[in-house]
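User: Hi! Is it possible to get a structure for several chains at once, not just one? Here's what I have:
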Amino acid sequence: MNTDKSHIHQNPFQQLAREHIPPPKLKHKILTSTKLAYFMLATVDLFSVKATDTIFELIKNSGSDSDF
Amino acid sequence: MNSPATMAKQLKELSDAKLVQLSIGNGDQKAFGLLYDRYGDRVFNKCIAFTKSELDAEDLAHDIFLKVFLKLSTFNQKSSFYTWLYAITYNTCVDYARKQSNKNSQSISFEEIDQKRIKAYHSNSEQHLLKMKVDQLKQVLTQLPPQDKMILLMKYQEGLSIVELQEVFNIGKSAVKMRLLRARERAVTVHKELFN
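Assistant: Yes, the chains can be modeled jointly so their relative placement is included. Here is the combined structure:
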């Protein structure tokens, strides 16, 4: 990232960012969902907004983080 | 022929744009996983600021990355990947906050904050903001409107420039500066309200 961070060194926002680290299971859950999303997209064979919105809702509401 | 370790190392050295291409082209989970490795912590931290528990923040971060994956083909590569990702993060977090605000009432109304802000002195709000203690900042952030919270986090946690903030929020330069100034002033006003 090409951003100047000199002015935010040790500021309270930066300290706050260090307080929370995402659990490893989050990456697994995301990649399981994106894998499913990829196959669903391939199945409908289009990347229209309507299809992606529908797929998002389907995966979100499935609540599944198991492998498939 | 390259070994798996060499290939993994080569993949790690690829630019965000190249990883996006690989993710779209063949649904490469390793490529998208690397994008998550690069930005997952930052997105998760934004989600934490908008939720009351780590579990809710996980759900929100999950939704953001799923949306990002589903929209990858619409990423036009004119902007950097991270400003595009932060724009989706911003929109998703603001939507979440709106839904939550229908369920819960705030302890200080935004109008009340504005009235006090108008009456307030134009002291150096940035200096005041950056001198807050972390625990105090946490409480101040819970009282701010979602747009204020996000612009402050993008500016002072991520160090985004004005141009990058324009891309994330899809507004002009002067609008970014004004929104930033107002967000800082509201934060300082809330801080004084809570801790003075």
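The mean pLDDT of chain B is 87. Residues 3 and 9 of chain B are 10 Å apart (CA to CA).

User: Great, thank you!
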